[in-house]
Amino acid sequence: MHVCLCPSAIELSSKNQSPIKLVSEERKLGLATVLCAQCEGCHKQFKFCTSPSLPESKRFDVNVRAVWGSIATGNGPSHLNEIMGTMNSPGLSSTSFSAIEQEVGEWWLAALQENMLQTVKKKIYALGANATYKSAALTLQIQEEIFTNMQKEVNKNMTGRRRPEPSKLNDSIAMVSEPQSARVFAFIPGREYTKFQAFSDIFSRLKVPGLHKWITDNKERLSYETI
Q1: N or C: more exposed end of the chain, with fewer CB within 10 A?
Q2: Which residues lie across from 46 on neighbouring strands?
C-alpha cells in the first residue's frame, strides 16, 4: 500500500524499476518468518510476517496447520522437521510443537463437548412426548458404542494398519444389551429362533408393566431436568 502512495516509488515503477527491496530476515518463528522490506523511493522500512496469526491465539497459522497435519497423520516434531528439511525450509522446535499440540487438543475437546451437548438436545426433542432422561442417555450410549465399533472395524486407522472387515454383529448386541441392562425384559430361557443359531427372541419377553413404570418414572425425572 505504501508504494502505491509514495511519489518516489511511483516514479521508480514508471521506469520499470522495483519499488520494494527485501533488506533482511529479522527472525524465524517456526515455519513463519519476519521479514524487513524497504521502499526504494523514500527508503522507509517495514516489517511483516509470512503468515498471519490466528485471531483466538498468538500462534501463527502456518505453524498450527503443520502441527494439526502431523497429529492427523500420527507423526511428531521429528518427522515434521525431517520433511521440512528436505525442502530446505525451517522447522518447529519440540517445545513449540508440544505447546501447539496441547492447544489443538483443547480446541478438539471443546468442539466435541459442544457437539455432544447439541446431540443430546436434538435426541430429547426428537423423542417428543416419549422423551425421558434415561431414554436419551441410552440412545446416546448405544450410538457411542456403535461409533466405537465402526472405528475399530474400518479398513485402516491413522497409522495405516489394516483392520478386520466391518461387521454389524457388535452393533446388534449393543442395541439389545442396553435395554436389557435397564431391566425392561422378562427372562424366558430357551426361547430362540430355529433359523438363527443362538439368536434370542428378545422383544417377545418385554414386560409391559415394567416398561410402563420405567417410562413414567423417567418422564417425571425429565420434568426436573434443565435442557
Answers
A1: N
A2: 37
